[in-house]
Amino acid sequence: MTGTTPAADHVLVLNAGSSTLKYQLVDMADGSRPARGVVERIGADGGPADHTRALHEVADRLAADGHGLDSPRLAAIGHRVVHGGTTYTAATLVTDEVEAGIEALAPLAPLHNPVNLRQIRVAREVRPDLPQVAVFDTAFHATLPQAAARYAIDRGVADRYGVRRYGFHGTSHSYVSRATARLLGRAVQEVNVIVLHLGNGASASAVRGGVCVETSMGLTPLEGLVMGSRSGDLDPAVPLHLARVAGMSTDEIDRLLNNRGGLLGLCGDNDMREVVRRSAAGDPDARLAFDVYVHRLRKYVGGYLAVLGETHAIAFTAGVGENSAEVREAALRGLGRLGVELDPVRNAVRSAGARVVSADGSPTAVAVVPTDEEWEIASQTWQLVRG
Ligand SMILES: Nc1ncnc2c1ncn2[C@@H]1O[C@H](COP(=O)(O)OP(=O)(O)O)[C@@H](O)[C@H]1O
Ligand SMILES: CC(=O)OP(=O)(O)O
Ligand SMILES: [Mg+2]
């Protein structure tokens, strides 16, 4: 020991999804990650019972690695929060009032906000001395023009109840759109990009010169693409029909669409790897699930090409987007006339980094760009606490 105190330049990032808790300790001095990991299967067999237990597991793992939550190097904790409504359109220092705001938005993101809030409360209890920052999924989409953000319903009702399109996965869409510009060697202000974030939850966005102008998720993370266990778009009369004809309650319909829909509802598996494997083995349910998933994705790609006009790149990201050559190929097959030409050999190569997978001369480049929500959350947190 030299007697000098080590610099407090570590940011701990907690990114809770519906069934996972990802964590990373980021060293802001050099961008390295002294610790990172994920607790999976929360609430399922073999996993922790709930997100509070999961957070204790993260704390234990960090301590075992010599980076306990009591570390003097920790400068701040950055939390992913899914819904920020119209109140929170940028990273925000957490106070009791902000906690109450996140709680008030819970009905709009029932799988996520309650979990995000519990995690913030536990972290504030453990380190009340540290700044804690909430980074919202909705923030990047605050720029949506009215034409894209409005539902065509009575304006008074919409305004009174905050019924509008917010969009989610914004941290990822923001990071990936900038990383795609870098990959193309252009300034973000010069490029128009369609980002396809295909994880367990999935969403598309159209980003014009770094500004989000359209996205597929809406009031809640249910609208849009087919997901692991969420239906995405459907006729808004479907829930009414099921309530009237099948006598289903709102909670039952909620579970049907949010937890038992998507790939899971169509074929019994929410993991795209399983869907592709079963489909290749000739399973008709898995084949149908794949086809519905891809058909919806193609509709959004076509729609967003029209929204953007000139489109410099389509970027695939998150678990499915980064890893499934089958999904990328099926989503873009035959789009040469629209200026999108995938290179089948480049597309099939497995590689970890950002890469172009379109043919040379394709007017719209196609790229695979790994997302890094944790880095984005860490840098926004750092900016807020260090100016
Ligand atoms: N090699 C692969 N092929 C197809 N899908 C994959 C592959 N690897 C991972 N996935 C998919 O990625 C999904 C998880 O993506 P991820 O971005 O980690 O999701 P989330 O953050 O929403 O939990 C899984 O459902 C899985 O189906
Ligand atoms: C908003 C959302 O759908 O998040 P995730 O994909 O992590 O479930
Ligand atoms: Mg995710």
TrEMBL record:
One example GO MF annotation: acetate kinase activity
InterPro entries for this protein: Ac/propionate_kinase, Aliphatic_acid_kin_short-chain, Aliphatic_acid_kinase_CS, ATPase_NBD
Catalytic activity: acetate + ATP = acetyl phosphate + ADP
Residues noted as binding ATP in the record, renumbered to the chain: 22, 197-201, 271-273, 319-323
Site (described: Transition state stabilizer): 169, 230
Enzyme Commission number(s): 2.7.2.1
Pfam families per the UniProt record, alphabetical: Acetate_kinase
UniProtKB keywords: ATP-binding, Cytoplasm, Kinase, Magnesium, Metal-binding, Nucleotide-binding, Transferase
Pathway annotation: Metabolic intermediate biosynthesis; acetyl-CoA biosynthesis; acetyl-CoA from acetate: step 1/2
Record localization: Cytoplasm
Enzyme category, top tier: transferase
Chief location of this protein within or outside the cell: cytoplasm
Entry's cofactor comment: Mg(2+). Can also accept Mn(2+).
Role description: Catalyzes the formation of acetyl phosphate from acetate and ATP. Can also catalyze the reverse reaction.
PANTHER family, per the entry: ACETATE KINASE (PTHR21060), ACETATE KINASE-RELATED (PTHR21060:SF15)
Protein name: Acetate kinase
Organism: Streptantibioticus silvisoli
Gene: ackA
